[in-house]
Predict the 3D structure of the following.
Amino acid sequence: MNNLLGIFTSSIGRKVLMSLTGLFLVLFLLIHVVGNLQLFRNDDGYAFNTYTILMTSNPLIKTVSYLLYATIVAHAVLALVLTLKNMSARKKGYGQTSGATSKWSARNMGILGTIILVFIVVHMSNFWYEYKFSEVPWAQYLTNLETNETTFTDITDMVKQMPEKPNFKSQEFSAGANKVLIIKNLYHEVKTDFQNELWLVCLYVFSMIALSFHLLHGFQSAFQTLGIRHKTYTPIIKFVGYAFGIIVPILFAAMPLYFYFNK
């Protein structure tokens, strides 16, 4: 028990937990960006909406999601504690190395993390909260099983006229030679918000720049904290870290820009 408490109370233990939670969030970012790439498909939101159902209905994924929320909170709290401890002990910010050669991202991990945390709150309130608790448009996808062609119909008005609102996120059934999918249309919410809210687009792009700098330092720092440092592995970790820290934020930033400039 004392060893377990030591992990949370010692500086090294907190840094290890910070690294582990950070790497878990990196894994989530990879999965999330792959799923969100469905937004670029020219299918009236079919792929993205079905991906959303998978992410919010599968029991295993829902369990991992709760772990994700806890990890975000833990990562933010640990970052705050480490920043305050380091500022108090050495008059320096978290991640700062001695001398003028320390990287800008390393010196400002606290600021970058705060920007990302604000972004997460806005992102969750705009899409996750609306999808869970607010009225979201409804879509019907009619797929001809012979030609495999899918036709989209907005059925939001029809659903609003129902005496009882649907108690499901999606429903699929057969109708003759067709497959019918009725589903919550989160794609419409994403598309509409990014097309009409310039401030939201700017926030996403700015936050992805902050995320890039955060990842460029944090990815390599996490492995170093965990003691994974070797002349063979370190160059690979650095390459993956730089590639991940640049490509993933660019893909996330491209999504709001895509919708805003394709009104």
In short: The radius of gyration is 22 Å. The chain is about 70% helix and 10% strand. The first strand starts at residue 138 and ends at 144. Strands lie at 138-144, 150-154, 170-175, 178-184.
